[in-house]
């Protein structure tokens, strides 16, 4: 990573030189150059990697930054980024206006491939977050399945992410990705994201066609009236169901809804008006349907919990969350009034707070104010495209169907050993 980035820098800044004594130091001579959105004309730049056990204070101290200034950086960064989250292996840069032997003017830490933290170490200390420019290109892909798509595509990062989107976000209610047939095939139109010319991931999937068991399953992304974007088939039916089966993935039900059971802690017999999903501590919990948070709180019995209102009929609640959920709530504004998206927004982490014997999420479900078992209740379908948006949907649909029709399926079949058959066009 470090090497690739360095090479890119060398290409972009054709006026830059490397210090022969220290290859991590670059001397920028070109005018009008920006790095991390900072004008760097005449700067010397040192690119480094955080070593095991090293912290920001230590790094800055080694580069002649005073303890007073380090303390200011620590205090100012609290509002934007926790410096304790700086990881070994993480990349940082020190930028010097004058000489590498003096105090740096900037310290930059790359939080991820897009976001970075800047500490300006001049007369007044400033700390802020900024982003690199992300370029998005629309791409197409297709594949034919010979054995298991899951295994075939997991070999490649790009395709694994696409498979996750197809399997978990677009088709989880339509196609069972663990039971695909040989000969099943798909086409997909998606956004690929780039930073500094480097592919960093898959963005939005605009449209897909999955041909499975002689059926065509179209998925077209469309923004519904004032709501979230959803995937619809060619007839404008929503591919999503109103509720997810579970608020956590990769889980097992450890206790079902019952009117009578012995409480594991108190030993008393009483009803269990929820479904327990056992999962490791820290597993993300999602709202099972789109909705608005009405409570994010703590009680002695529930522990940390969140309650979500989905409409005038349905409300759900998620109990025994881990204490770390509090930090997430503060960061993502998980509180009364916040709108959350089904299966997308994390509302907490599995824990064992309150009266719980082991890590699990107790999922409670209300229909018209009465607690019911969601597995024994007929649940609503998601609504089709609204009448007032129908013309807009038809126009958008035509564009995507035409684009899909121009994508060819690969001639060769995919199997575990030959993922090259996957034709992702760049
Ligand atoms: Zn329970």
Question: How would you sum up this structure, described in words?
Answer:
- The protein is an alpha+beta fold.
- Helix content is 17%, strand content 36%.
- It folds into three domains: 2-131, Nuclear Transport Factor 2, Chain: A (Roll), CATH 3.10.450; 135-241 and 386-425, Nuclear Transport Factor 2, Chain: A, CATH 3.10.450.350; 252-376, Distorted Sandwich (Glucose Permease (Domain IIA)), CATH 2.70.70.10.
- The strands form six sheets. Strands 15, 18, 20, 21, 22, 23, 25 and 26 form an eight-stranded antiparallel sheet that branches. Strands 1-2-5-6-7-8-9 form a seven-stranded antiparallel sheet. A six-stranded antiparallel sheet has the order 14-13-12-11-10-27.
- Helix 2 runs antiparallel to helix 3 (67-77).
- The longest helix has 16 residues, at 390-405.
- It starts with a helix and ends with a strand.
- Bound molecules: zinc ion.
- Zinc ion (ZN) binds at residues 255, 272, 274, 276, 362.
- Residues 255, 272, 274, 276, 362 line the site of zinc ion.
Question: What's the helix and strand layout?
Answer:
Blueprint: H1 2-12, E1 17-18, E2 25-27, E3 34-35, E4 38-39, E5 44-49, H2 56-62, H3 67-77, E6 91-96, E7 106-110, E8 115-121, E9 125-131, E10 134-144, H4 149-154, H5 157-170, E11 185-195, E12 198-212, E13 215-223, E14 229-232, E15 252-255, E16 258-262, E17 269-272, E18 275-278, E19 284-286, E20 291-299, E21 303-309, E22 314-321, H6 325-332, E23 339-340, E24 346-349, E25 360-367, E26 370-371, H7 390-405, E27 423-425
Antiparallel strand pairs: 1-2, 2-5, 3-4, 5-6, 6-7, 7-8, 8-9, 10-11, 10-27, 11-12, 12-13, 13-14, 15-18, 16-17, 18-25, 19-24, 20-21, 20-23, 21-22, 22-25, 25-26
Helix pairs in contact: 2-3
